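Marked as duplicate of an earlier ticket. Keeping the data here for the record.
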Amino acid sequence: MIIAIANEKGGSSKSTLTSALAIEASLRGYRTLVVDADPQGTLTDWSAVGTEESVASLPTVVAMGEQLRRQLPELAADYDVTFVDLPGRIAKRVAGALMVADLVLLPCGPSNADLWALETTLEMVSEAREMRPNLEVAAVITRKRPGTTSGREIRSALEDLGTTVLETALCLRETYADALGAGSGPTALAPGSLAAHEVRCLMNEVEDLLEMEAGRNDEDEISAA
């Protein structure tokens, strides 16, 4: 399974989402690959820290550029699940990944600016689905402030655009930044935290979308925005 994480806006939590899900997938027993297709190289740096700190659940991480569409399927064949952190503004790489992915996750923060930026990505996704109607696409609300209505408002706006929105939202929590900086993920670094609960709920939803059963954790209920 190839899961692409896409949004052209910087600061949309693409790398945070990718790393958190990849660690959780690895903890569930999936052979997990992370492809860092973003020139910023955030996940390459994250992997280097994780290796240095001997993070047990750290998945394999590789950097990949313009040959994404051609190389990705061959590379992913040796893994159960591959997460691809896509660049913001390199359309060729994004389009290439969309042509081979099974699922596209669209992280979206709780502001109009986040929503406007996502519309361009949604156009590319729509074009890809014309050729690949079975491509699964879902938005993930990120950076939601706990106790506010921002999650509900952005959820409604995304649904108005015809986008499926996963029930689980990732809230603004220090654990996400701490885990990324430690080369890990919330479910490995702080398994009892609220952030870890959100990640497990989100991974449950991803497993449902792709009919993955290897490591499902039904103890965590959906954490809706």
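See parent ticket for discussion. Residues 2-210 form a domain with the Rossmann fold fold (CATH 3.40.50.300).
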